[in-house]
Amino acid sequence: MPPPAASSRYPSPSQPSGKSEVTDLKSQLRQLAGSRAPGVDDSKRDLFKKVISYMTIGIDVSSVFGEMVMCSATSDIVLKKMCYLYVGNYAKGNPDLSLLTINFLQRDCKDEDPMIRGLALRSLCSLRVPNLVEYLLGPLGSGLKDNNSYVRTIAVTGVLKLYHISASTCIDAEFPATLKSLMLHDSDAQVVANCLAALQEIWSLEASHSEEACREKESLLSKPLIYYFLNRYSYLKGRSKFQYGGVCFCRIKEFNEWAQCLILELAVKYVPSDSNDIFDIMNLLEDRLQHANGAVVLATVKVFLQLTLSMTDVHQQVYERIKSPLLTLVSSGSPEQSYAILSHLHLLVVRAPFIFASDYKHFYCQYNEPSYVKKLKLEMLTAIANESNTYEIVTELCEYAANVDIEIARESIRAVGKIALQQYDVNAIVDRLLQFLEMEKDYVTAETLVLVKDLLRKHPQWSHDCISVVGGISSKNIQEPKAKAALIWMLGEYAQDMSDAPYILENLIENWEEEHSAEVRLHLLTAAMKCFFKRAPETQKALGIALAAGIADFHQDVHDRALFYYRVLQYDVHVAERVVSPPQQAVSAFADTQSSEIKDRIFDEFNSLSVIYQKPSYIFTDKEHRGPFEFSDELGSTSITPEVSSDIVPAQQFEANDKDLLLSTDEKDDNKGLSSNNGSAYTAPYESSNISSQMQELAISGPAASATTTQSSFDFDDLLGLGLSTAPAPTPSPPLLKLNARAALDPRAFQQKWRQLPISLSQEYSVNPQGIAALTVPQSLIKHMQSHSIHCIASGGQSPNFKFFFFAQKEAEPLDYLTECIINSSSAKAQIKVKADEQSTSQAFATVFETALSKFGMP
């Protein structure tokens, strides 16, 4: 946010109380401008410090610009620096005033002191005023030929600044050719590095419309230049064009860390002519692996890895060689550096876990490490676990389960479960997992239940041991949706081995309305079906209640599954059993969250933020900065082309088609006058007469269907305990929530409510392709949601991530609904969090929000 106005700040000794003090400062500077009295420089310093301090805290002191320039006629370098700082700050916003500085800056560029020459040249190039470009050419040309390396270094950077101000002026003055000559012949390593950086940027920008620049850019990757920068003596011996004054320099060691990384990044792009070329470069860079700077080590590692990709045996030896330097950096640096190095080590561990298997103790968590480092170490312990070290690793992970940091405790339990899914011999691991259930900590129990479920899917032979322990857990103590869903899955899958399974499910189904998670309700439907096939008499009533509640459910997926189960049971119970509860088969492997292509792309972007984020750069960078990779190649085209748009079905037509899949022709005619279920395309069959007609009119081919469709469905309803033939019709679903189109909410009130109210529900929706294509800027969605009486109070972000804060008000009642909506256009997903004054209506509002979002971008 902008700084407060000067009048609203508290006065301080270093701050003027009004314009009069700035005026006094101006008059004092004017008096000292032409004075040569003893001690005048000290007085100027005090005044200059005041000016800089006022400028730093945001006070406009541009009125003293002329006086500051007049006072700059001094040999005191401290005064020069403060004056240059002042001029650089106000020059761009005051181009007319900048003209006053040209004379004294050009004069200082010819000063005897190289420090003053360099500072003056840097300030002159930092004015960034297009009208003053002509005044830069002379000082830059002189600076590039200066005898002092500091001035030449500043001049090289000034050429790049000139290019960004006026590219044509820079090219016409032939500065790139001068930089190339300096790069090849200058004796100072920093000058060479600056020339390389400037030429890379200039030629990269010019290559799009200049063949000569394209050739020059490619020449940077030639063998002579690569060896010139790396400077292997045996290659340079006798080649005087790469020597300066008859002396051969070991270039790579002379450069500072930043320049070494720049050169190593250039070496990565070099294509060696043969294997000898590869070994020569690796031998030359061997000592860079021992460098104290982590950036240099990682850049060297990237060179080694990329050079040996086509040499399998050598590539493996490279892993062995780089392991020790990276592990040393992890233990010797700051937590931030350790995390960066660990992220790269994690990438290498995933590609070659067997090489790091013997070094697993390096990845044990230390008590004083931050949580983000511990979490990454847990992932690495999971990746390197094998038959030889599993026992030690699992023992260590079990200690972390009692950690005071709940998130680390959860991650350690998940790590144990992942190791169990990777190994064939899981005897000891299963015992450890089951011991977690005895810790009587909610989050430990929740994570363990999820892992036990996955373990039983892969190793069904352990069902007896696991079920005997899981059966003693009360479902009332499980609050997390994923854990409750895992417990329900085991109740349905192993109902024959758990004596209380039908009764636990019945108790959960009776509390259907209190269950807010759609995932849990979906698992309840499936578990009730499975339990019905194994223990029908005990589960009959519970299944009937579950199906009735599911058909009337607001959530579309729950409604669809319940209706599907209802109809497949009505068609043939044996077919339903084969569909819902087939013979159990072990899962051979679980799907990886990242494809091999994504992992290879991240590996190609080694030593970059892609490794830290564990995502390719195209996901988190703007399109213009993605380099050679096209957006459509990775994520698919999100825009709707004319050829594709003709095949897209409008929302209403899609709902009608979906309805046709479930209802017969006569039934559609009967339902034309009925209102939809909370905006859904489906209408729940509430009345017994409608249910009867549905059962009789189902058009399912096959002999089984012909035999069953002639019978009444009342017997089937009685079997499930629905009692639809005699019981009165249930209460219809509530109507859609009506919102106030003229709602208003102050931003401060929104912020205060957002802090005070708890999250009522959190859901994830899919955004249609038309919506993704229309979401080029946040304003497009804001206008659309406003047309549905949902107003935006704040928004931000850019593709692919957009964030919105919406609010809405219930019609005729002062009830507010606050919503945070995060949309990722690359995954076409929207995550929302809803906070409401009346939490009981949060689901109804979420349905309205989802309906409005689903229509975004539709014609």
TrEMBL record:
Entry keyword Protein transport: yes
Record field: compositional bias (Polar residues): 673-688
One Pfam family matching this protein: B2-adapt-app_C
Membrane-spanning residues: none
Residues annotated as domain Beta-adaptin appendage C-terminal subdomain: 737-854
Start and end residues of each stretch annotated as Disordered: 1-25, 665-688
Coiled coil: none
Compartments reported by the entry: Endomembrane system
Family: Belongs to the adaptor complexes large subunit family.
Function comment: Subunit of clathrin-associated adaptor protein complex that plays a role in protein sorting in the late-Golgi/trans-Golgi network (TGN) and/or endosomes. The AP complexes mediate both the recruitment of clathrin to membranes and the recognition of sorting signals within the cytosolic tails of transmembrane cargo molecules.
Quaternary data: Adaptor protein complexes are heterotetramers composed of two large adaptins (beta-type subunit and alpha-type or delta-type or epsilon-type or gamma-type subunit), a medium adaptin (mu-type subunit) and a small adaptin (sigma-type subunit).
Identification of the protein by name: Beta-adaptin-like protein
